[in-house]
Write a structure and sequence with these properties.
With 385 residues, the chain is an alpha/beta fold. 53% of the residues lie in helices and 10% in strands. A seven-stranded mixed beta sheet has the order 1-7-6-2-5-3-4, sandwiched between helices. Helix 10 crosses helix 16 (356-376). GO terms for molecular function: acyltransferase activity.
Length: 385
């Protein structure tokens, strides 16, 4: 099924637009610069020839995006593990609502895994602030990214939100294509993953039925992604520290580009993705809540609970908790792992020309907060972490 004309300003490229966009992509100097770094052993002419024959989005992902993403992950991580994908029916479409740690890779890793499992990849929400030039825009829209405009005037926000909501519903229910969207606007800077109530309200704007019948058909799948090391941890900690000091943080497109490059190329250690239980079985209970704001908060809390429960904790998380608060989890890591983690944090601060002592607390909090959130999940004992 084709996209509706009403969504032309939002949607990714259609198959009929792919070849023209690919030609722009491969003729730009950025293409050689990026691909030579990722595939130093490959001939640029052969790669360009292969891409010139691409006619569909699916073929573009197969020829370009999957091998590129897999090579990046192989070079910058110690492996990608996953669980919960047995909850996904390949014949159905889902709304993956995910915690958000990396600008590009959170959704990319999900789609790499889906591709390897033979399941259709998702469309991905991307903020227009990240589309820093036409080359990046072409790359994003070729790779099934749809655009979320971050600069809508307040008087137009409701109308725009309705359009975005309708697009999400149309894509999932009519086009039978899954969508990935972050649980909040922007990445989590402090490691405290919480779903924004406003996001859920936006998603429901296009529904004209009751609460259950609006949300259940979307098959909301909470997703948790956890990186052993966050390549952007110092950049995030610096932002948190500035806000705590009452200093305004004004980010430029160059800052976003630096974060994208650091996130893609930086060391991640082990990475884990977990798909939580689809939320529809609880929506009947939430439907009985009378106040609409309380309904939205109950849904947000349910998604958060499943994200926190699914989140994979690494030794670094326990080390950070013990260093920041009190020693409770020393049986979850070794002395050598603790020393390695502190050495890593100091080196990261040095790499970004930051003062480790000034950023120590926000850095540790970033890694410790997932432990705190897991402890809050009802009925979870420390022994189950």
């Amino acid at each position: 099924m084709e996209y509706l004309e009403a969504f032309d300003s939002i949607r990714p490229y259609k198959d009929s637009e792919v070849n023209e966009a690919v030609q722009r992509l491969i003729q730009h100097p950025f293409f050689d610069q990026v691909t030579k770094k990722v595939f130093p052993e490959k001939s640029m002419d052969q790669l360009k020839m292969a891409l010139s024959e691409v006619k569909t989005v699916k073929d573009f992902q197969k020829v370009m995006m999957y091998p590129t993403a897999r090579r990046v992950l192989d070079n910058s991580s110690e492996g990608i593990s996953h669980d919960g994908f047995d909850k996904i029916n390949p014949d159905k479409s889902y709304l993956f609502i995910s915690n958000h740690r990396d600008i590009v890779l959170d959704s990319t890793i999900l789609n790499v895994l889906l591709f390897e499992l033979g399941v259709d990849t998702t469309e991905v929400a991307i903020g227009n602030n990240l589309l820093v030039n036409q080359w990046v825009t072409d790359l994003a829209k070729l790779n099934k990214n749809f655009i979320v405009n971050r600069n809508i005037p307040p008087r137009e926000m409701y109308s725009y939100s309705q359009t975005l909501s309708s697009y999400i519903r149309h894509t999932i229910l009519d086009r039978k294509t899954s969508i990935w969207i972050a649980q909040r606007e922007g990445r989590t800077k402090d490691g405290d993953d919480q779903t924004q109530q406003g996001l859920l309200k936006m998603i429901g704007l296009s529904g004209d039925k009751n609460f259950y019948e609006n949300y259940a058909p979307l098959r909301i799948a909470p997703m948790a992604i956890s990186y052993e090391y966050d390549p952007c941890d110092v950049l995030k900690a610096r932002e948190v520290a500035s806000k705590l000091a009452g200093k305004p943080v004004e980010k430029t497109p160059e800052d976003d580009l630096q974060s994208m490059i650091a996130g893609i190329t930086g060391v991640k250690g082990r990475v884990h993705i977990s798909i939580g239980k689809i939320v529809d079985e609880k929506l009947q209970e939430i439907r009985e809540v009378k106040n609409k704001n309380d309904q939205m908060q109950a849904l947000a809390d349910l998604i958060d609970e499943r994200v926190h429960k699914s989140y994979k904790l690494w030794p670094n998380n326990f080390i950070a908790y013990d260093l920041l608060y009190e020693e409770r989890f020393s049986d979850h890591y070794t002395k050598e792992e603790a020393e390695k983690f502190e050495t890593y944090l100091r080196k990261q601060a040095q790499n970004f020309s930051a003062d480790f002592n000034e950023l120590k607390d926000p850095l540790l909090a970033m890694y410790a907060n997932p432990v705190k959130n897991k402890l809050k999940v009802e009925g979870l004992a420390e022994s189950e972490l």
